[in-house]
TrEMBL record:
This is Threonine synthase. Residues 79-387 form the Tryptophan synthase beta chain-like PALP domain. The lineage of its organism: Archaea, Methanobacteriati, Methanobacteriota, Stenosarchaea group, Halobacteria. CDD domains: Thr-synth_1 (cd01563). The keyword Metal-binding does not apply. It comes from Haloarchaeobius litoreus.
Length: 419
């Protein structure tokens, strides 16, 4: 049986394991020592996952934030700002309008640099220290570069980021720049940037911290752990469904791994696992295509376009991990138009929750699935909002109302308000 099956047995340590931790290929099952040398993929070319011979249960967690869950991570502590412990908003008006049993919004835009990427970087940059690498690098639609720049700065490591020229929201470039990353603006889209940075990494020029790096996904597992704990506390049960925007599908893969490990540890029943529901923009939807057509792989989309620049990705590298996650949990994937993304961004803002466009795709996708009758009115749903409103001030300003010019005196202002 595939190690990615929800019914896979808990693994036991191979000779390559160090202190009960190893890297394992999701295809051929080959095992590698975790920190002996820099490695992102298996010799066979497939993706790797971090494995543990001792999987924790709920009693093993204490403290707050990502490192509350150190028992589920390869280290006791990371390079921390600190991250995690994000808001779990109630959104009563949206809950009524969407018409589900309950709706919560997990706002990952409230992490230190304003996106969930921080959860990955606190573990990923700690791993870089363990390996003793000199330079960190990533390709990015923006948020990965902002997070890497900040965590690299914290660790005192040199950071290189490759961005698609003209396609990264202003707030994200500003962050990478001020935190001291060297920024290369590539004449190409995100997928081209990732191709190049993977080449650089394989030549030993830099340590790659895209979500291809299996250690990053370990940190991102903690989104799932936080949601499950908070939901159980508030409703006495786990959510039926988690809806999230999908770009490279790292988060989808990380959440699925979180659930799988809990099932293997006996901390959650198989039938309690939330349905993973991925949302993509219609102009960049290779995962939706693969789910709809029943394919085990995604087709690379060379032309991608959407207002949701964080998920403007045509070749999702984590698809081999994420597609089984969507299928095994009984979830689905759906594509949404940019105008419904913008409307969802406005409506979340109307509940006081400020998110960037990609994040709003989760609500837009939930609405579409409710319209199609694919999400029941008896479901408890959590939408993941991945990045903060201020990441993309231009999109926010365009979605909001225009400022009104008035004269510089009270009488003039009153006259304007009365008119
Ligand atoms: C990175 C990112 C995504 C996509 O996440 P994946 O793990 O690549 O699917 C979605 N939204 C925002 C705001 C992001 O920064
Ligand atoms: Zn392999």
């Amino acid at each position: 049986m595939s190690s990615l099956s929800l019914s896979a047995e808990a693994p036991s340590a191979p000779p390559a394991a160090v202190d009960g931790v190893w890297l394992e290929c999701i295809d051929c099952g080959d095992a590698y020592a975790p920190f002996e040398s820099v490695r992102y993929t298996c010799d066979c070319g497939a993706l790797l996952e971090v494995r543990y011979d001792d999987l924790p249960t709920w009693d093993d967690f204490e403290g707050r934030g990502v490192w509350r869950y150190s028992a589920a991570l390869p280290f006791e502590e990371g390079v921390s700002l600190p991250e995690g412990d994000t808001q779990f908003h109630r959104v009563p008006r949206l809950e009524d309008e969407v018409g589900v049993e309950s709706l919560r919004v997990k706002h990952e835009g409230m992490n230190p640099t304003g996106s969930f990427k921080d959860r990955g970087m606190t573990v990923g940059v700690r791993t870089a220290q363990e390996l003793g690498v000199g330079r960190l690098a990533c390709a990015s639609t923006g948020n990965t570069s902002a997070a890497l720049a900040a965590y690299g700065a914290r660790a005192g490591l040199e950071t290189l980021v490759l961005l698609p020229a003209g396609k990264v929201a202003a707030g994200k470039v500003a962050q990478a720049s001020l935190h001291g990353a060297r920024i290369l603006e590539v004449d190409g889209n995100f997928d081209t940037c990732l191709d190049i940075v993977q080449d650089l990494a394989s030549r030993g020029e830099a340590y790659l911290l895209n979500s291809l790096n299996p250690f990053r996904l370990e940190g991102q597992k903690t989104i799932g752990l936080e949601i499950l704990e908070a939901h159980r506390e508030d409703y006495g049960e786990y959510p039926d469904r988690i809806v999230l925007p999908v770009g490279n599908a790292g988060n989808t893969a990380a959440l699925y791994k979180c659930f799988r490990e809990l099932v293997q540890a006996g901390a959650m029943d198989r039938d309690e696992v939330p349905k993973l529901t991925g949302v993509q923009a219609a102009g960049a939807a290779p995962m939706v295509e693969a789910i709809e057509e029943g394919n085990d792989e995604t087709r690379r989309w060379d032309e991608v376009e959407t207002i949701a620049t964080a998920i403007r990705i045509g070749n999702p590298v984590n698809a081999p991990k994420a597609l089984p996650g969507i299928r095994e949990t009984g979830g689905t994937a759906v594509a949404v138009d940019d105008d419904t993304i913008t409307q969802a961004q406005r409506d979340l803002a109307g509940e006081g929750v400020g998110v960037e466009p990609a994040s709003a795709a989760s609500l837009a996708g939930l609405r579409k699935l409710r319209e199609r009758g694919e999400v029941g009115d008896d479901e408890r749903v959590v939408c993941l909002t991945t990045g903060h409103l201020l990441k993309d001030p231009d999109a926010a300003a365009a979605a909001g109302a225009d400022p009104e010019p008035v004269p510089g005196d009270t009488a003039g202002v009153l006259e304007h308000l009365g008119s």
